[in-house]
Amino acid sequence: MKVVVTGASGLLGREAALAALRRGHQVMAIGGTTAPRIPGAERTLTIDLRDAAPITGFMLEEFPDAVINCAALPTVDGCERDPASAQSLNAGLPARLAELCFHVGAKLVHVSTDMVFDGEAAPYGHTASPAPLSLYGRTKAEGEVRALKAGREHAAVVRTTLINGNSPDGTRGLHERLIRGLMKGGVTGLHTDEIRQPVGLTNLADVLVELCERRQLSGVYHWAGAEAISRHEIGLRICRHFGLDTTLISPTESSRSASATPRPRDLGLSLVPLAGKLRTPVQTFAEQLSELRVPRGCEQWYEERTGRKVVRRLEKGLDY
Ligand SMILES: NC(=O)c1ccc[n+]([C@@H]2O[C@H](COP(=O)([O-])OP(=O)(O)OC[C@H]3O[C@@H](n4cnc5c(N)ncnc54)[C@H](OP(=O)(O)O)[C@@H]3O)[C@@H](O)[C@H]2O)c1
Q1: In the beta sheet, which residues pair with residue 266?
Q2: How far is the centre of ligand 1, averaged over its atoms, from the C-alpha of 2 (Å)?
Q3: Which domain holds residue 205?
Q4: Number of other CB atoms surrounding residue 14 within 10 Å
Q5: Strand pairing report for 229-230 and 195-196
Q6: Contact present, 119 and 172 (Cβ < 8 Å)
Q7: Is there a domain that residue 272 lies in?
Q8: Contact call for residues 221 and 275 (beta carbons, < 8 A)
Q9: What is the 111 CA–ligand 1 centroid distance (Å)?
């Protein structure tokens, strides 16, 4: 299959492009401002996906079999700072890609988020009604509806959650943000009353590609890891895995913090029916931890802190 991956310079998009290559597909990788680094990709390019014309021209030139949409403005703060881009990328782009996929007969796999929910009715089934608390959640919820309306049986939406994995620059993964925070600030406070169900990066990437391969699966699905745990527990388990002192993580409560945007309390997801329809298995948190590496730039701090040596390996033609 010819698979187009948007957001291929980002955390999830790059891994989705690598997974598509690993599974024998031809890959066209699109970044926004940074050209994706995907060894083996047929084409790598940058397109500003807020504009309709360039992506329309690209799709009509390439006529792909599938599109995996990982391009987004994917943070609560980023959306508050730039609402116009949030609307265009999180809501307008999925609609445009779905129209184009419907037109050329391609499958669209669009990535959405658990942040479309308010956190008061977990575990959320795939038919639960969104009730977003933030602009990020609202624009992503609108993107889901518009993608499905325009793409019809050609479109699948995958709601997912905190991504646990190694990012291209060592700053985007869950453990990377935590370890960098520890390196800067000593003790880090993490909420005991915020429940999330982290997902492994390579596992999620496989799911996105498998959904391209399984053309008959359309509609909204949920994908996450096997366990719903608090952010505090996530931090403790990451510290234990890396041999870091767990007293560096202190328990805090979200309900007592003075955040401008309210945070969903419990975003546990039910993985029915997708977990029963795919070959890709659901990963436990321990399985996710086994794939993590010390982030680039943190090696010296880490070695001094733990007495463990960091050894870098070449993987998939890339030096992580
Ligand atoms: N990360 C998580 O924990 C998480 C959790 C739940 C759901 N998700 C969802 O997963 C998806 C991927 O998130 P991610 O964490 O991989 O995000 P990311 O690392 O920030 O990547 C975002 C991608 O979007 C691209 N992009 C941004 N603006 C663009 C523009 N104007 N034109 C074209 N491309 C543009 C970026 O390209 P450049 O950097 O080259 O500009 C980058 O490749 C999103 O839909 C997000 O909502 C993520």
Answers
A1: 195
A2: 21
A3: 2-165+196-222
A4: 25
A5: antiparallel
A6: no
A7: no
A8: no
A9: 10
* Protein residues whose CB sits closer than 6 Å to any atom of ligand 1: 7, 9-13, 31-34, 47-50, 70-72, 74, 89, 111, 113, 140, 160-163, 172
pLDDT tens, residue by residue, 151-168: 999 999 999 999 999 998
Query: How many independent structural domains does the chain possess?
Result: 2
32 found inside a domain: yes
Alpha helices in 7-154 (DSSP H): 11-22, 52-62, 76-81, 83-86, 93-104, 135-151
Residue in 4, 5, 6, 12 to alter for ligand 1 test, most ligand atoms within 8 A of Cβ: 12
Query: Do the bridges between strand 107-113 and strand 66-69 make them parallel or antiparallel, or are there none, so unpaired?
Result: parallel
Q: Kindly report, residue by residue over 249-283, the tens digit of the pLDDT.
A: 999 998 777 677 889 999 999 999 999 999 999 99
Question: Ligand 1, atom 21: nearest CA belongs to which residue?
Answer: 10
Residue 71 CA to ligand 1 centre (angstroms): 4
In this structure, the answer to whether residues 51 and 82 fall within a common structural domain is yes
Q: For residues 261 and 133, is the Cβ–Cβ distance under 8 A?
A: yes
